[in-house]
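To: structure desk
From: M.T.
Subject: fold request, one chain
Message: Could you run this one when you get a chance? Sequence is below, nothing fancy, just the single chain.
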Amino acid sequence: AVVSTQSTGIGGADMPVVITVLNSYSGWALCAEGFMLNNSLMTIVGSLIGSSGAILSYIMCKAMNRSLPNVILGGYGTSSTGGGQAMAIEGTHTEIMTDGVVDALVNAKNVIVVPGYGLCAARAQYPVAEIADLLTKKGINFRFGIHPVAGRMPGQLNVLLAEAGVPYDIVQEMDELNDDFPDTDVVLVIGANDTVNSAAEDDPNSIIAGMPVLRVWKAEQTIVMKRSLGVGYAAVDNPVFFKPNTSMYLGDAKKQCESLLEGLKRHYGE
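Reply: Done. Structure tokens follow.
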């Protein structure tokens, strides 16, 4: 009943936080049971589960610029959200085809890939790993930028990329490379939306105002791979899609990455 009451008003984007909170609850309950039964093992294991759940909850809330009570009570907006009307998005988007993406990548010196939940859902990490390996061998500085809440849980993208064989040293956290985007030739966003939304920094009235994001729009060229121009889980339009240096590479992430890999191999004669 407690779980049902706490989770009823919570949106889908916040559910991972609820899961870690409930996981923490279960750990502290086990810890208390260990005290009652005078069982040291149960107490130790329970405290580890409880503390790890609490730490994960804190990391995700901080990454969204939200407080834990705001999430648990079904709150709306971040702690920095203003009270006015959100800025209207103007302009039209530009689409790009596979050949255009291939040309951009082979002519770049610095490339950053920013993956999101779309990559996880499409299981596109394997062709992306091959793309990374191919371009790295060609002398391109190829890196991955990971937001703390990319995917559904902290570390989910790291695990998927490691599973596909991506070297750890080219997978970097947001704070490590966020200042490098102005010096980046091409940014390839794969299935990410809210974590690369410029409204978090530019629009004080946006419901995600103040949320730390990867500043992909500051690169020389930004290519966004998504199924559509639809909003993310925060239900906020993304101005990045309409910026003059952004091209939309629309389609299923796995199929698009496979097409991109084939195009790169043809270019290099492999």
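Reply (cont.): The first strand starts at residue 110 and ends at 115. Let me know if you need anything else for the meeting.
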